[in-house]
Design brief:
heterodimer, A: mainly alpha, 9 helices, B: mainly alpha, about 85% helix, rod-shaped
């Protein structure tokens, strides 16, 4: 039998606060808008149905655990189906590599204002490069990096969500950080 | 981990935050719709499930009883039908044998055969089923 959610407005506010990041996390993994939206919907549904009556303090961690499991399940299912899409996206990425990010950064530093269209374009390109590099990370490294640094979870919380040891979390985070730093450095991007 | 990496991580996360805050309006609208759909569906299901607990269980119990009763009745009808069909077949066989005997279509050697004679003796008390 389904549990009855304790508070609609409270749940709605919580979901509104996490939906964008959840969508981005799903996008990093599956790289497809519709699938990412489905994942977010599934995760929201599971949280509200199963844990809606729980204390709101528990929701963030529960939601992350559900979201990561849903992403993993969806990723496994679509792994074979997206093989060709992945290959295709790698060709697209090679086009991006032709453009020199140094130009972006240097041009950005010379830009007079932060809100100029040129500056916005550069920022969006920088964001695109970083998101692409995060997408390229191995799934577990990406998961650890996003939970630990973006979601600002503790090591023990991250380990609990990922279902692994704290040592593994540290290893995944360290590798992800080094990989990202090296990738950005190789593109001439210094943050 | 060195402070440099910590700083890079913070900057990366800052940029990711900006990306999340600058999602396309269409995606934001879809997310809002997803959230509303989830909440509406869950609250409607939860509120109606309470009301439906008694009625639902009663209906399910009745349905299970009716299904079991129907299965028993079907089994009984099948058994009776099989018994009746078997009786009809036996009667038909007897009719054919009797008619052959009466029509003298049996070979003469059949009357000499002691086994046939014995069979006649044992089955002579059998008659056609009463209509």
């Amino acid at each position: 039998m389904k549990t009855i959610p304790a508070s609609g407005p409270e749940l709605s506010a919580f979901l509104a606060s996490v939906e964008r990041r959840a969508f981005k996390q799903a996008m990093f993994a599956v790289r497809n808008h519709e699938t990412a939206l489905d994942i977010v919907q599934d995760a929201m549904m599971k949280l509200v149905e199963k844990y809606g009556a729980h204390s709101s303090n528990e929701w963030p961690m529960l939601f992350q655990r559900i979201l990561q499991n849903t992403i993993r399940d969806s990723f496994r299912r679509s792994k074979i189906r997206t093989l060709w899409m992945t290959l295709f996206s790698s060709f697209v990425d090679s086009d991006d590599e032709d453009s020199d990010p140094l130009d972006i950064i240097s041009a950005g530093s010379e830009a007079p204002g932060f809100s100029s269209p040129q500056r916005q374009l550069e920022q969006s390109r920088l964001l695109s490069v970083i998101e692409t590099e995060i997408e390229k990370l191995p799934a577990r490294q990406r998961e650890a990096f996003v939970l630990r640094y973006w979601e600002e979870m503790g090591i023990s919380e991250t380990a609990s969500v990922m279902g692994c040891s704290e040592g593994s979390v540290k290893t995944h985070c360290s590798r992800a950080t080094h990989t990202l730093a090296a990738a950005l450095k190789a593109k001439g991007i210094t943050l | 981990m060195s402070e440099d990496f910590e700083l890079v991580n913070r900057k990366i996360c800052h940029i990711l935050d900006r990306g999340a805050n600058e999602l396309d309006a269409s995606v934001v609208a879809r997310l809002r719709l997803v959230r509303r759909t989830v909440l509406e569906r869950c609250f409607v299901t939860a509120s109606t499930s309470r009301l439906a607990i008694i009625d639902g269980s009663t209906v399910r119990t009745l349905f299970h009883h009716a299904r079991a009763t129907l299965m028993i009745v079907a089994l009984g009808l099948g058994a009776v039908g099989a018994y009746y069909w078997n009786g009809l077949e036996q009667a038909q066989e007897h009719v054919e044998i009797d008619s052959e005997i009466l029509a003298d279509e049996l070979p003469p050697s059949a009357y000499i055969d002691p086994g046939f004679q014995e069979w006649l003796d044992t089955t002579s008390h059998l008659s056609l089923p009463q209509n």
